[in-house]
Design brief:
Structural class: alpha/beta
Helix content: 40-55%
Distance between the termini: 49 Å
Largest sheet: 5 strands, mixed
Radius of gyration: 21 Å
Length: 253
């Protein structure tokens, strides 16, 4: 078995699919597996092949999905690339095997386990992005830049950023993924872009959570003011706002 591995980035993932597919044409698809890095425990008798991102190869895969399957299929695949699930990359590969064979009708084949798997992954990623749109808390730095820290399991900060780009188009802000050391940056009246942070940049930006402004106290006051003592239900609260998502919510600090 040949196991192709890559970093958890869109370009690397698409390149990994390209190279794995080329190898599968020689030795068969069932002799190929794909996994995101890091790989914590390698098996003894399998060959592991690391793949670096290649813009040309990645573009070919994306173009082929859009042309030979559909735009909707590519959107499903894109959401799956953001997933933190261990088997997400293999699920994408299995779906593409079925998709390139069936064409645009593949998304209506709800009895196909590869289709169901991909749609389930997309749903979970979409739900997580929706939750963090609700849970995002911004700190104002001298009323010039707004900074938000999140620690999502899946790589959803660009999905969250798209939401705030529509609502804060004329503000400078950034959403930082503390797990991946990446930032969705939005310049005033500009377009969002993804920035990979250096260790020094990340350590500097982590200090922004120490800042407090008038909105910090206002938010805490609002949170406690709307609470009804007789209706407190911490089990329900933990279900709707899990503890692992509260780390950067000012009202719980």
């Amino acid at each position: 078995m040949k196991i192709f591995t890559c970093k958890d980035r869109l370009e690397d993932i698409m390149t990994c699919i390209y190279d794995a597919w080329a190898e599968a044409l020689k030795i068969a698809h069932n002799q190929i597996q794909l996994k995101k890095e890091p790989i914590f425990q390698q098996t003894m008798f399998d060959e592991y092949i690391h793949i670096d991102g290649n813009p040309s190869k990645a573009e070919k895969v994306i173009r082929s999905i859009r042309r030979n399957i559909s735009e909707e299929a590519y959107l499903d695949v894109y959401y799956a690339t953001l997933s933190a699930e261990e088997d997400a990359l293999q699920a994408i590969y299995n779906f593409l095997r079925a998709g390139f064979a069936a064409g645009g009708t593949i998304l209506r084949q709800y009895s196909n386990p590869h289709v169901i798997k991909l749609l389930e992954i997309r749903r979970r990623v979409s739900n997580e992005a929706h939750h963090f749109r609700e849970f995002a808390r911004f700190q104002s730095l001298d009323s010039q830049v707004y900074v938000c820290h999140l620690e999502p399991r899946s790589d959803v900060i660009m999905l969250v950023g798209t939401h705030f780009a529509d609502r804060m188009p004329s503000e400078h802000w950034m959403i930082i993924d503390d797990n991946r050391k990446t930032a969705c940056v939005h310049p005033k009246d500009g377009e969002n872009y993804l920035r990979y942070l250096t260790d020094e940049e990340f350590q500097t930006l982590r200090k922004t959570e120490e800042y407090e402004d008038e909105f910090t106290d206002m938010w805490k006051t609002f949170f406690h003011a709307i609470s009804i003592k007789q209706r407190e239900n911490y089990v329900c609260q933990r279900n709707l706002f899990p503890i692992w998502k509260r780390k950067h919510a000012v009202e719980f600090k």
